[in-house]
Amino acid sequence: THFGFQKVKESEKDKKVHKVFEDVASSYDLMNDAMSVGVHRLWKDIFMDRLWPTHGVRLLDMAGGTGDIAFRYMRQLAAQKNNLKRHSHVTISDINQHMLDVGKERARLQGLTEEELPFLTINWQQADAEQLPFEDNSFTAYTIAFGIRNCTHIDRVLREAYRVLKPGGRFMCLEFSHLTNSTLQWIYDKYSFQVIPPMGQILAGQWQPYQYLVESIRQFPRQEDFKKMIEDAGFELVYYENLTFGVVAIHSGFKL
Ligand code: SAM
């Protein structure tokens, strides 16, 4: 029938769209895995462990990309059987709509949707971290993983994070940082400058973005300086924790 035909057509299109999304997402994953030898997954797990969300949280995952952080949040909530009466919320936001489209599709494939997780409202929203379209005091937690380094004005990102958090809300950032030991830093510099751009060329067919990646990591403020910037934005009880000798650091602060 006409309708039958249309159905077949649609499912073919669906499959094509899937494939495009999956190609992008998997090359993104492949590069993350290759560059960090898979450790980025562990860093993200630890990051979510530190936040340890419980039901009732309203999370804004900024620069959320394809959802790696938000998915961990959803799974952590799903694993907590008690207290389901408290409704939770997550907004996954990124400046790049395409990343969000990939993320939305992956969420669907992994069963991370409002239908599957009825205790949760999920909102995918394109936005610039430096100028958020959200009201003051609207979230209880704000996460940004491997995203703030790419923003032009870090101080604006922090000010916006502070503005949209409710009093008592927590800011958490996971970002590449600086090694605590100078010998290790020397080895790491060699690795990153000599290995990452060629690896980008081979695996993703691009040298320049990976050269930029390495340089942006070098230029990002050191742990103590970044801590100071977070305090300057108004956050209190600010601390940081180095992971893998400072290859990455988790910074945390509260709006009190
Ligand atoms: N948080 C995800 C993760 O850990 O897998 C994605 C990290 S990805 C390396 C960096 C993301 O930051 C990209 O998706 C990019 O589009 C986003 N981004 C860059 N500048 C941004 C800005 N000014 N506002 C919001 N997102 C931004």
Provide a descriptive summary of the structure in words.
The chain is α/β, with parallel strands linked by helices and 256 residues long. It has two domains: 2-177 and 223-254, Rossmann fold; 181-219, no CATH class. Helices cover 50% and strands 21% of the residues. The protein has eight helices and seven strands, in the order ααβαβαββαβαααββ. The protein has helices at residues 2-36, 39-51, 68-79, 97-109, 154-164, 182-204, 208-219, 223-232, and strands at residues 58-62, 88-94, 120-126, 139-145, 165-176, 236-243, 248-254. It has a seven-stranded mixed sheet, sandwiched between helices. The longest helix is centred in the first third of the chain and has 35 residues, at 2-36. The chain is globular. The N and C termini lie far apart (63 Å). The model is unreliable at 1-8 (pLDDT under 50). It binds S-adenosylmethionine. S-adenosylmethionine (SAM) binds at residues 63-65, 68-69, 94-96, 99, 128-130, 145-147, 150-151. It catalyses: a 2-methoxy-6-(all-trans-polyprenyl)benzene-1,4-diol + S-adenosyl-L-methionine = a 5-methoxy-2-methyl-3-(all-trans-polyprenyl)benzene-1,4-diol + S-adenosyl-L-homocysteine + H(+). Its main location: mitochondrion.
